[in-house]
Amino acid sequence: MAKKQRFRDIKKGKIQEPTVIEKTKRTRAKYAPITTKIKAFITDVFMLLMPIMYIVTYLVMGSLQEFQANILSGWIYILVPNFIIVFLFFWKSGQTPGCRAYSIELVDAKTGKKAHPLAIALRYYFELLSIISLVGLLMALFREDKKCLHDLLSGTILIQTDV
Questions:
Q1: How many Å separate Cα 92 from the centre of its chain?
Q2: What is the pLDDT along the chain (163 residues), one digit of tens a residue?
Q3: 44 occurs within a structural domain
Q4: What is the C-alpha to C-alpha distance for residues 137 and 122, in angstroms, rounded to an integer?
């Protein structure tokens, strides 16, 4: 009912329709909070990485003991398909399933538009290094803009899409 009343008020001239500048102020990009990034990452781990790990461990390598015996090749078998899947999600829509669930999107830090494919690939590998070392992830706690190391090195950011 409130929408009809507002439309009628605009039509009668009682209320001004928002200008383009006011609309862009409301839709200005906002950095995604660290908690939202972590939730999206955990969702992606369980939706994308875990099925690949299961397939590699039990169908490709045969057993957990075989995976443990050839751990380096096992992780290569896991990370290559995971990279391809994550890359395609980010390249196509800017969102993985976890990002979509929490309304965040990967964009270029300078332009705010869709990230370049090379930046997406670099972000994936830098994110692996950040996770292994933990230094890259902890950087976000001490920076005002809450960017992690992989965001800085790849020139990308995760923004809220539902602002």
A1: 13
A2: 455 556 666 667 666 655 544 443 444 568 888 889 899 999 999 999 999 999 999 999 999 999 999 999 999 999 999 999 999 999 999 899 999 999 999 999 888 889 999 999 999 999 888 888 888 888 888 888 888 889 999 999 999 987 5
A3: yes
A4: 16
How many residues are recorded in the chain?
163
CA proximity to 94, closest of 142, 146, 156, 17? 156
Residue 49 structure tokens: 């990485």
Nearest to 160 by CA among 70, 95, 92: 95
State the total domains in the chain: 1
Please tell me the pTM assigned to this model. Answer: 0.73
Is 7 a domain residue? no
In a domain, 4, yes or no: no
Query: In the Cβ-directed half-sphere of 33, how many Cα atoms lie within 13 Å?
Result: 6
